[in-house]
Amino acid sequence: MKIGLMGKKVGMTQIFDQEGKALPVTILQIGPCLITEIKNIESHGYEAIQIGYVKINQKKLNKPQTGHLSKQAIPPLKYLKEYRVESTKEFTIGKWITVKDLKMDKNISVSSKSIGKGFTGCVKRHKFSRGPMTHGSKNHKQPGSIGAGTTPGKVFAGKKMAGRMGGKQVTVKNLKIIDIKTKNNIIIVKGCIPGKPGNIISIHQK
């Protein structure tokens, strides 16, 4: 079955396999997550479940959020996210989803917010080549021609220029699960995941 969970990034390290090769891995603390709503074709036109993560004080939620959760006697949760599923028959409101529901033999996709770099220039943002640094050149890190003139008389949208870099939602697909620690709700994934330690992440396994 399709399964989605929320968690946070703990950090990166390396482990050694049986052949003695070093593998870069990311440690994720996943769930437990509580099913807060079930959507089906009759009511919403598609099959999906909504899960909640991290219990908080009810005073930190607004009235719509409190009303939504109190309908099903769900405790106040900070994060809510919806996941599409093939069938909702296996899910019930109030059921906890943990790392025990993940399968070792299937890869996962992880979504997270990448680290923000702020406003950057073309060289850092798009890997542009710099100009000469000597002989009176004043074109060190300038963007160069952007194509504007009588024709077309404008700059086309999507032109690679200076701007804000990072801080966007990024998804990394087909990451292999190395190990699952059910006692501490931790999974170890091969490879890197965008974002810094402590970021809220979302994983999906088909």
TrEMBL record:
Quaternary state and interactors: Part of the 50S ribosomal subunit.
Similarity comment text for this entry: Belongs to the universal ribosomal protein uL3 family.
Record gene name: rpl3
Transmembrane segments: none
Keywords tagged on the record: Plastid, Ribonucleoprotein, Ribosomal protein, RNA-binding, rRNA-binding
Name used for this protein in its record: Large ribosomal subunit protein uL3c
GO cellular component terms attached to this protein's record: cytosolic large ribosomal subunit
KW Ribosomal protein (keyword) present: yes
UniProt key word rRNA-binding: yes
Alphabetized GO MF terms: rRNA binding; structural constituent of ribosome
Alphabetical list of PANTHER family matching this protein: 50S RIBOSOMAL PROTEIN L3, LARGE RIBOSOMAL SUBUNIT PROTEIN UL3C
Coiled-coil segments: none
